């Protein structure tokens, strides 16, 4: 899988820009705030329907303009395609000229793995970042996961609203049974997907991490969930019912799941060095790449935002050994020379991209 061409109009700091790619490494370099990351963001938006940097889509539109569009042409083993996204007062998404009514119809046409310095938060920060990592990977591969995820959170919102009504309006507590049964139904489905893909990552990450660290470290992942069994899940909701009424929100369930990474049997987020934490994220992302490859029989597009600033030369070399078959787009502040690897170098200055001969 690779992208042939991208067109931008009024996207971030780009007035108009067209870039043609081949199936090689593309390196975008330039000073900060010139528009390098915006290129990766645009590709990510066409893959996932949303940005990895902001929830406010108005921020994607160039200042003093009232619309923007992104158009990407891509090629997969069995087909070619074109995705166009229009941003204005509302968002319109087109696949091969046909307007899509559901976001789930977009996701999975272009598969991406993104790595940025902020991804260290997957290790260092709370479980929300780790759940987001899982959600992004699984949703690209299993459309039914998106349905179960959306229905779960719709039901969760309804249950939380009813908890407040019980507390302040003395509504009937027994009516919570309706929401509890729905939460368990969707929640256990989500657990099954997540558990399956955690196991897929486990099957990859040990060897990848061993290679990156020259066999000096052993990495392990443990999935933590209260939502494994429907009967136990339902009992747990009922057990915590009074506490939930007092607090006004649901305190247990798949929305609180987490996973923990261990290096040499110690939790890396607590005991790991900065280098170990960065390498753990690197191994996690490479595992994601190979899991996606196993699922669709071709490599996803790898987006590396300011990637080199976080790694020493040894880890950089180890990384590129693992990704020779994927299309890679890299941003950085300096011109990158990759020995023995075919690459195209682009200079980015104030929203203008120029191929460096």
> Which residues form runs of ≥5 with pLDDT under 50?
none
Radius of gyration: 22 Å
> SS-based structural class?
alpha/beta
Taking the sheet with the most strands, its summary is: 6 strands, antiparallel
Distance between the termini: 25 Å
Number of domains: 2
Q: What is the name of the CATH class of the largest domain?
A: Mainly Alpha
**Which second-level CATH architecture of the largest domain applies?**
Up-down Bundle
* Shape label: globular
Walk me through what this model shows:
The protein has 2 domains: 1-111 and 300-357, 3-Layer(aba) Sandwich (Rossmann fold), CATH 3.40.50.300; 117-297, Up-down Bundle (Glutathione S-transferase Yfyf (Class Pi), Chain A, domain 2). Helices cover 42% and strands 24% of the residues. It has helices spanning 36-48, 121-124, 127-141, 143-169, 176-212, 230-239, 241-247, 268-271, 274-296, 313-321; strands at residues 2-11, 14-20, 25-29, 68-75, 80-87, 91-95, 98-99, 112-115, 219-224, 258-263, 266-267, 301-304, 328-332, 343-349, 352-356. A 6-stranded antiparallel β-sheet has the order 2-1-4-5-6-7, with helices on one face. The two termini are 25 Å apart. The mean pLDDT is 93.
């Amino acid at each position: 899988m690779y992208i042939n061409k991208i067109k931008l109009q009024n996207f971030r700091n780009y007035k108009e820009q067209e870039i043609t790619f081949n199936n090689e490494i593309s390196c975008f370099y330039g000073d900060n705030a010139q528009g390098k990351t915006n290129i990766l963001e645009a590709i990510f938006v066409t893959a996932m329907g949303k940005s990895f940097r902001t929830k406010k889509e108005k921020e994607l539109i160039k200042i003093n303009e009232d619309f923007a569009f992104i158009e990407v042409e891509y090629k997969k083993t069995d087909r070619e395609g074109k995705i166009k996204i229009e941003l204005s007062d509302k968002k319109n998404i087109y696949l091969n000229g046909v307007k899509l009514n559901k976001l789930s119809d977009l996701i999975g046409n272009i598969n991406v793995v993104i790595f940025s310095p902020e991804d260290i938060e997957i290790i260092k920060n709370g479980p929300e970042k780790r759940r987001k990592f899982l959600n992004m990977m699984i949703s690209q591969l299993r459309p039914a996961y998106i349905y179960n995820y959306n229905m779960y959170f719709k039901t969760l919102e309804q249950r939380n609203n009813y908890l407040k009504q019980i507390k302040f309006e003395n509504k009937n507590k027994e009516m919570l049974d309706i929401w509890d049964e729905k939460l368990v139904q969707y929640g256990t489905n989500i657990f099954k997907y997540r558990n399956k893909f955690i196991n897929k990552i486990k099957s990859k990450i040990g060897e990848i991490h061993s290679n990156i660290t020259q066999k000096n470290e052993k990495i392990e992942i443990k999935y933590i969930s209260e939502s494994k069994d429907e009967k136990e899940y339902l009992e747990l909701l009922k057990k915590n019912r009074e506490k939930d009424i007092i607090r006004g929100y649901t305190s247990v369930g798949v929305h609180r799941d987490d996973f923990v990474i261990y290096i040499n049997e110690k939790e890396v987020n607590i005991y790991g060095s900065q280098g170990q934490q960065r390498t753990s994220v690197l191994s996690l992302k490479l595992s994601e790449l190979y899991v996606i490859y196993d699922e669709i029989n071709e490599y996803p597009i790898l987006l590396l935002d300011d990637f080199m600033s976080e790694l020493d030369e040894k880890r950089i070399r180890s990384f590129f050994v693992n990704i020779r078959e994927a299309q890679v787009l890299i941003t950085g502040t300096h011109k990158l020379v990759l020995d023995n690897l075919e690459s195209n170098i682009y200079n980015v200055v104030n929203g203008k991209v120029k191929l460096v001969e």
